[in-house]
Amino acid sequence: MEKNFETLELDKVLEMLKNETSCDDAAERALQIRPSSDFITVCNMINQTEDAYSLLARFGAPSFGGLYNVNGPLARASAGGELNTRELLNIGSTLRSMRILQEWYGHCSGVKTSLSFLFESITVNKYLEDRIFICIVSEDEIADKASDTLYEIRRKIRAKSASIREKLDSMIHSAHYTKFLQEAIVTQRDGRFVVPVKAEHRGDVQGLVHDTSSSGATVFIEPISVVEANNDIKVLKGQEREEINRILYELSVEAGNFGESIKNSYESAVELNLIFAKAHLANKMKAVKPIINTDGIIDLKQARHPLIDKNKVVPIDISLGEKYDTLVITGPNTGGKTVSIKTVGLLTLMTMCGMLIPAYQSSRISVFDKILVDIGDEQSIQQSLSTFSSHITNVANILKVADDSSLVLIDELGAGTDPTEGAALAVAIIERLRKKGARICSTTHYAELKAYALDTDGVINGCCEFDVNTLSPTYKLLIGVPGRSNAFAISLHIGIEEDVVNRAREIVGSDNRDFEAILDKLEATRLELENEKLAAEKATELAKKMASRAQSEKDKIEVLKAKELDKAKKEAEKLINQARRQSSDFLLELEKMKKEKSPENATELAKKTRRAIKNQMGEMDDLINPQELAENWDEDYKLPRDVVVGDAVVIRGIGEGEVIEVKNNNVTVKSGLFKTRVKMSDLMLIEKKKKQPVKPQRNLYRTSSRADADVKTELDLRGQTAEEAIANLGIFIDKCVLNGINEVRIIHGKGTGVLRNVVADELKHHPNISEFRLGRYGEGEDGVTIARIG
Fold this sequence. Notes:
By secondary structure, this protein is an alpha/beta fold. The protein is 50% helix and 17% strand. The protein has a six-stranded mixed beta sheet with strand order 12-13-14-10-15-16, sandwiched between helices. The chain has a five-stranded antiparallel beta sheet with strand order 20-19-18-17-21, with no helix packed on it. A four-stranded antiparallel beta sheet has the order 3-4-6-5.
């Protein structure tokens, strides 16, 4: 199988994938990816790649820089070993990279994807990360702040060094020693401060000789006055090394303690790096997620070979396994036959590796157990195999292992031997593979195979289009059409004399000439149909544009209409608000009058007042919300007679109204408070309806009138007569309706039950009461009634 993968150039695609990774381990895993034949595994990998692609598009790319494989150092640290600064810095860098990765995921607005479990398995260890970078400045330097002890040791070293330099500076600038020195500088040898003295004056400067120049003219002497101070520095340097070793060991112990957590997090980060690398490659290829199946169905739309320049590659449509299980592609050399079957094989392998494919949306790919390939010239001089022998050897191996879950791709089947025998052998091989249930895609030049495909169910011809006018291939794959060799046309174009080509045509058998003639007719018909299809597509596109433009104009009209209606409703609402205020004041006056009149007269007056108010409010509501008859306008409607003054009509696009004037074909109609002039053709006659009291709306506007004062949700009727209770109850409910109160409590007491029955009867028939009930325990029980207004 590895050889087949290499033949289809999967290794080159994996090399492209490797270049999209950010760490060494992810790059190595990219090259080691192998196609999976497990449907669930493939689906999971594809979903992960698609989710990564989606996250890239929405939130940008996460960073994977700074990831190192620190499993080895962590294992040594866990076993008690001490890590060096480079190893600890790599651990710190890895921890920082994983923290940044986790922070990026935190910015993804809590989006749950198939990658969530990988992100969530990454453990951030800010403590160890900070400890490492606080203590270690670089591979060669430990920070002073790594520990208080180290800081104090280095402070003493700096103080001692400054003291020595001060002494030596005064010495080299003194008149007595200047003549003995080679240069007036202070330097170091073996970590001790020395001065360069001329060799002939070495006895004039008391001290220890530490070095001599290569010429022997200079000796480096440590003056006796600074020997003790240098010794102190030497001791402090030793203490510094011990403290640094202690710090590194302490960091190593801590890293070892977190070893398993870091290893697991690193594995998840590497896996994410590989998945996002697939997403990056998909973005560069303009790739999509295919629909995956296990039925052996391949249906590629506008598929492109990923290794050919996307600006030069010609997309192909190719299908296999649904209506037919075998595709025989014919056509001239360099016409794209081999690229076509390689595209099928390579895109199938990419899908089985969890990668998106460069094709059009809704392309379908099947998962196969085996992808068997015989493509290219396998001639071997060492093994004494001819081209034909090498191909047949490959085909023999394919015949042995092929089954109903195999995709077989064979280039130039039966080529390299006698055409008659080769064609017969090719047909026999295809028949055997079909019996095994394999899906087959093969290229050939044999006319016998073209005829076999025409005569056999489940086998179909395909060809790579060839422009006979330019004598060059278009690289476009046509399914259902057998290709022509075009050998005679190409020979003429190259320069073969016409009489030679004509003689060749005579030599070709009549059957072959008839077959080629049929192909000519088929090609002409196909081109004609192709032109007609293009014309139809242009007409359809034009029609769609016109329909879109018409819809846009219609939408504009609807918006204008809605604005005008909204404006009218607002005007009407102003009138309703005014009426409500007047009604509220009227009810207040009514309440005053009730106190001056007998209960019987007050009750009757209250009922009449409520009816009048409801009628008025109903008319106003009709004005704001006209009936929807105009929306259901019958375009075929014709007036049964001419309208006359007083007729009730529906106005197209407006609503109901009444005719108040007729002049020729123009009619003046009153709709609510508005008058409009319309054509008679825009009217529909309806029967006059008796106006019914309209239930007031619950969400009434609160006003600032006196009726708002002291509005309560509870009414106490105890001690009143039945007539007084009904009158007071009616006024109470009206005030509650006007002020938008939804639930009220009416206290009537238990007593003989007369008031309770009167209240229940009144509430039962009241248009503003939606439901009522006696009080429960804690609410007053049978002594109160709870009513809902609505």
